[in-house]
Amino acid sequence: MNVLKRNLINIHRFNQNTLYSTIYKSAISLETLYPGSSLKLSTPTKPIESMHEKFSGYIPIKKLDITYSRSPGPGGQNVNKVNTKVDLRFHLESAEWLQDDIKKKLAEMNKNKLTKEGYLVFHSDLTRSQAMNTADCLEKLRNAIRRALYVQPPPSEESIEKIRKRKEKAARERLMVKRERSFVKQGRQNVDV
């Protein structure tokens, strides 16, 4: 009788624990957001296949000059202690990991980020973390390269026709405004006093 009673009590406790754990489990817990995942962090590696034949998204960090300094933003005493601002720079002309046409387009599109010596510079003091600011600088560089690679597709015939009609309409409206203004000025001159 004692063993049976103990088993019933254990079953009752098990049912209560599972009931409480399912009731108080958050709907946005990691187990529910990523079921079956080990939730281990990993470092990304160089991609095998490139999304674009000229740039895969991989940036060799050893070829970059990354410097850290004190950030002027908010953060209390952390600002005075930790170098969180990131300056990422590299010499654009001597970057052998970029193709020549990309270098020319980058120089053309980022004139305000080029120094006199030819260094392309990106800054970030977005967060209070040095690693996050470094990642932000790298992402800014990737986006600049992707913008340099983007080739705008030619407009379709429908778009060309719409643009032509808009220009004609704008020209007609401009001439109407000029004609009305001309009539007003003529009316001022013909007044006999």
Structure, explained:
Helices cover 48% and strands 9% of the residues. The chain is mainly α and 193 residues long. The chain has a three-stranded antiparallel β-sheet with strand order 1-2-3, with helices on one face. α4 (100-109) crosses α5 (130-149). The longest helix has 33 residues, at 157-189. The radius of gyration is 33 Å and the shape is extended.
Question: What's the alpha carbon Rg, rounded to whole Å?
Answer: 33 Å
**So what's the overall shape?**
extended
Helical content stands at 40-55%
Major beta-sheet overview: 3 strands, antiparallel
Structural class: mainly alpha
Residue runs with pLDDT of under 50 for 5 or more positions: none
Strand/helix succession: HHEHEHEHH
Write down the oligomeric state: single chain
Question: What's the mean pLDDT score?
Answer: 80
In summary, what is this structure?
By secondary structure, the chain is mainly alpha-helical. The chain is 48% helix and 9% strand. The mean pLDDT is 80.
